Amino acid sequence: MAREDSLYMARLAEETERYEDLVFFMKKVVEAGQELNDEERNLLSVGYKNIVGGFRTSWRSLALIEQRDLEAGSLRLDLLTNYRRRLELQLQATCDEVTQLVDKHLLPTATSTDCKAFYLKMKADYCRYMSEVAQDEKFRTVVETAHRAYEEAYALAEAELPECHPVRLGIALNYSVFYYEALIEPDKACDLARAAIDASSAVVHTLGEDQAKDTLAMMQLLQDNLELWTTETLEEGGPPEEAVEEQL
User: Fold this and answer.
1) Burial of residue 146 (number of CB atoms within 10 Å: 0-12, 13-18, 19+)
2) What is the Cα–Cα distance from 7 to 207, expressed in whole angstroms?
3) Long-range contacts of 243-248 (CB under 8 A, 24+ apart)
4) Does residue 121 surpass a pLDDT of 60?
5) How far is it, in rounded angstroms, from Cα 246 to Cα 248?
């Protein structure tokens, strides 16, 4: 199938919320070897984000049910545990697929700073998702890989992208979530989020209306997390609320 035909099918799949089909066709677009434009990049991201987002939500639900049934002494706990582990394998396989696409196709063809930073963040995000279900050596490996990719993306964005650039703010948002949830470093997470808010606050008034609106929305997500984490640090105890992250 020609690249343009695959892209057309991907657009149809996105409009009809057929995310597995969207990923299937966008992989063909990626493997054609050309650099993706903004629309193509976002189509790929939306497809994988929805698939893996479903896995993550289901896994969290199963983990809660498993804990409940364990406490109740359920006789079918082994069935539930096996089901959860099967879901983990599906999540990990999909995340591995994303990181391989980034390493083999997306980064090698990226020429602009925002594309390179976006793909590094993408790799880091999907390693972080794997860390949510990984244990022992696998956990350490994916956390280390995520940390390196976030650090590289953050350094690149900070050096070469404007303070209010959506990719730069998205990196700061998700990197701070990584510090809080995976590395368990709340002070570092808060510092990173606060720095991004302060930097963008200083220049947001210079932006056009549409760009300012997008920037303010991203700043609000950072602020929401900062307030959540500050409250949890002060109160301690009880199940933590889930932080918000960028959806692309």
Assistant:
1) buried
2) 32
3) 243/177, 243/180, 243/181, 244/173, 244/177, 245/125, 245/173, 245/174, 245/177, 245/221, 246/170, 246/173, 246/174, 246/218, 246/221, 247/49, 248/42, 248/45, 248/46, 248/49, 248/170
4) yes
5) 6
Residue 225, class by beta-carbon neighbours within 10 Å (0-12 exposed, 13-18 middle, 19+ buried)?
Answer: buried
Asked if 87 contacts 66 with a C-beta cutoff of 8 angstroms, the reply is no
**In the numeric block, which tokens belong to residue 96?**
């591995």
> CA-CA distance, 153 to 145, in Å (whole number)?
12
CA atoms of 132 and 52, how far apart (whole Å): 12
The angle subtended at Cα 152 by Cα 162 and Cα 183, nearest 5°, is 110
Asked whether the beta carbons of 175 and 124 are under 8 A apart, the reply is yes
Q: Say how many residues make up the chain.
A: 248
Asked whether residue 72 carries a pLDDT value surpassing 90, the answer given is: no
The string of pLDDT tens digits covering residues 58-67 is 999 999 999 9
- Using DSSP's 3-state secondary structure scheme, residue 212 falls into helix
**pLDDT per residue as tens digits for the range 171-208:** 999 999 999 999 999 999 999 999 999 999 998 888 88
